[in-house]
Amino acid sequence: MARFSLPRQGTFPIPAQALPDNLEGIDSMAASRRTLARTARWLIQIGMVGLIAYFGLRHQLVEGAAPLDSFCPFGAVETLPALLGGFGFIGKIGSSNLVLLGSLTLVTLGLGASFCGWLCPFGAIQDGLGALRRRFIGKAYLIPERVHNVLKHTRWLVLALVVWMSWRALGLWFADYDPFRAMFHFKFESWVAVALVAGTLVGGLLVERFWCLYLCPLGAVVGGLGTLGLTKVRRAEESCTDCALCSRACPSRIEIHTRQAVSDQHCTMCTECVDACPVPGTLALSTGRQGESLRPIAVGVTTLVLFFVLIWTGWAMGWWRTGAGCASCTAQLTPAEVLGYNVEIPDAVAAGDASGVPQVTYRLGGR
Sheet of 349-352: strands edge to edge? Predict the structure, then answer.
């Protein structure tokens, strides 16, 4: 019995005869598929980084341009408590965020958490840091398994904290602590922003997808929905050699070689495991139908096209309104309604209506 050391997952016992005799030929075909899928994925990720950077720079350079916050699906999660409470959208958030979150939800229910693996700009930054580390440093630092198993759930705590504090403040509380916003806002207003960006970059350089695995609140939402997705990585047990190369390739440290279908909240559908499998057809992306096998590049491109088609549909229906042009971002509340909330009112003004009842007029989260 040989033992095969995996830098991300420890060691797995595998039989010496587990690998097929024609592995060299199979590896050549797998390498060709892997190159094509990775090239497409990198091009899509670079495009998404460029797009979100454009929105961030445009906000800084063009007066009246929509804020970066209006182009993030997580803004809809942050404003949801305020909407349900009847307070409207919190500052810098508009119906555009709801369109983005709705589109992301539909894509995820159909194709799993492929947004995280193919479209997320901050995930692309994390992947880029990993590529730099492999080129100039070497292997990623492997957080001990017991610690990893605890830390991988902390992003749910981050999510709960952000939603709760956004509700308490009726504003973008997370904006001061969000490394994604700090990086693409291109305006480092405090040492906190600089420290957040630096810490996230260092973390991503040392640990594979550090932010995505342990801290990303949007990743928690998408990962949870992804477990319900129709499309999953599925393993054919009859042809599997138990070589564990798929588990070794997984950046999320999922033991893929032990599962028939990967329904893990940390799977980003990056398809690294599928590309690493030396036996064609053993690992495949599919909805579970007999004989179905979707090519990784097809899933990635479909994710891209479907996501933007759904966004365009929302725009064509008149649902797309960014925070800068959203009238409901301004709330009219009486002091009694404000009482009890930790609301910062940077531009509060005294006002009164015809009945003489004083009101407070302010822009939620306006900054």
Answer: 330-333, 358-363, 349-352
